Amino acid sequence: MTAEPLPAQDPAHLGGETGATKRMANIGILIESGAEGIKETNFGVITAARRKSGGNLFAFIIDGDAAAAKAVLETYGVRKVVGVTAPAPDIQARPELQAAALAAAVTHFEITGLLGVASPKGRDLLARVAASLDAPLVQDCLKVDMDEGTVTKSHFSGRTTATLRLKGSPWVCSLRPNSVEPVPAPAAATAENFQAQTVDPGRVCVKDVKKSGTGATDLAEANIILTGGRAIGSSENYQMLRECAEVLGAAVGASRAAVDAGYAPHSMQVGQTGKTVSPKLYIACGVSGAVQHFAGMKTSKVIVAINNDKDAPIFGKSDYGILGDMFEVVPALTEALRKRRQPK
Ligand SMILES: Cc1cc2nc3c(=O)[nH]c(=O)nc-3n(C[C@H](O)[C@H](O)[C@H](O)COP(=O)(O)OP(=O)(O)OC[C@H]3O[C@@H](n4cnc5c(N)ncnc54)[C@H](O)[C@@H]3O)c2cc1C
To answer: Is the CB of 325 under 6 A from ligand 1?
Structure first.
């Protein structure tokens, strides 16, 4: 990797042009889809990829229908939607083949920078693409400034951030889900398919994907998260949070103390040794606010704490605090939200 801390201004950066080679930058975005179609988290990445100084945005969909995705992607400024395939029937099960096909598309369309969501799939695929193109890679960025040519990344469990400049072309980076607010910027896009003439090395094949069964919404990409700490007291009591989460369209998380106590699986853990999340709303229920927990959720847009100890450190780190028993506050919140949802 050739990411460097910021030196003095250097024009040969993120999709930028040197004085000698003024050309339109082609920026690529790896688009991810879920059960409900194109994931919302992509729109923040597309927003981040736009440059005031111009350039074309390409959306790459692995083994997807480019024509069907065109309408929604052009709303955010994409100019070309490319369905990337390879001559193999089961490309979705072959990460190596997906990466090889995407790398071929990056080369074919003369992409100067490739961005994606820092989801498990995005991190995996982008790292493979960067390796195969020998491109600089920065994962889990909080910010990308396409005009300045810099990316910002959190270090030391969120205690500090570093602004980096990537040298070379193409470069690859992933953005933390929800770190950039999606802003529409309608454009007219075209759609096409690109079939990479790559051969699957056949070393990795995904046989089965098992859902953790802890909730419908993925924690890392959720817009709203309700987390239960040690005070939840049992795995059964998470049902109280799940009911509230269902009304809110939220995912349910856990502190390490709750995981260590066996109340929740590790896949639900938020924090330094769990998942890093960045939702629009984070509701911490019976969580004290230890630095290791905070490290995993401090970039949440709005933090609400429900705690029965007025001196709990979490109150000093929250936007809103509710002093009270979570076993009274959460059901009351669920009830109030349900009432609001009911048609009048
Ligand atoms: C190397 C290392 C890595 C770590 N990684 C992580 C990590 O990834 N994630 C993580 O979370 N922690 C992590 N920890 C652990 C961390 O230091 C804390 O121990 C942990 O976060 C505490 O979890 P908690 O807030 O649920 O429990 P506690 O600290 O026990 O807090 C429980 C809170 O619930 C409140 N409470 C009690 N009853 C109620 C009620 N009825 N209603 C409302 N509030 C109530 C209490 O006032 C208290 O504030 C790590 C620690 C180390 C050393």
So the answer is: yes
> Measuring from atom 11 of ligand 1, which residue has the nearest CA?
255
**CB-CB contact of 265 with 256 (8 Å):** no
Q: What is the CATH T-level fold of the domain 3-195, as seen in this structure?
A: Rossmann fold (3.40.50)
Q: What is the pTM of this model?
A: 0.82
Contacts of 199 (CB under 8 A, 6+ apart): none
Contact assessment for residue 199 and residue 101, using Cβ atoms and an 8 Å cutoff? no
Nearest CA to ligand 1 atom 9: 271
CA distances from 178 to 74, 169, 219, 279 (A): 20, 26, 12, 6
The residue contributing the CA closest to ligand 1 atom 29 is: 288
Residue type, 82: V
Q: List the chain domain ranges.
A: 3-195, 224-341
Q: Ligand 1 in contact with 290 (CB < 6 A)?
A: yes
User: Per residue in 220-237, pLDDT tens?
Assistant: 889 999 999 999 999 999
Q: Region of 233 please: left (phi>0), alpha (psi -120 to 50) or beta.
A: left
CATH (residue range 224-341) = 3.40.50.1220
Q: Whose CA is nearest to atom 43 of ligand 1?
A: 307
**Overall size of the chain counted in residues:** 344
**Residue 227 CB–ligand 1 contact under 6 Å:** no
Angle at 119 between CA 71 and CA 221, to 5 degrees: 75
Q: Per-residue pLDDT tens for 258-291?
A: 999 999 999 999 999 999 999 999 999 999 999 9
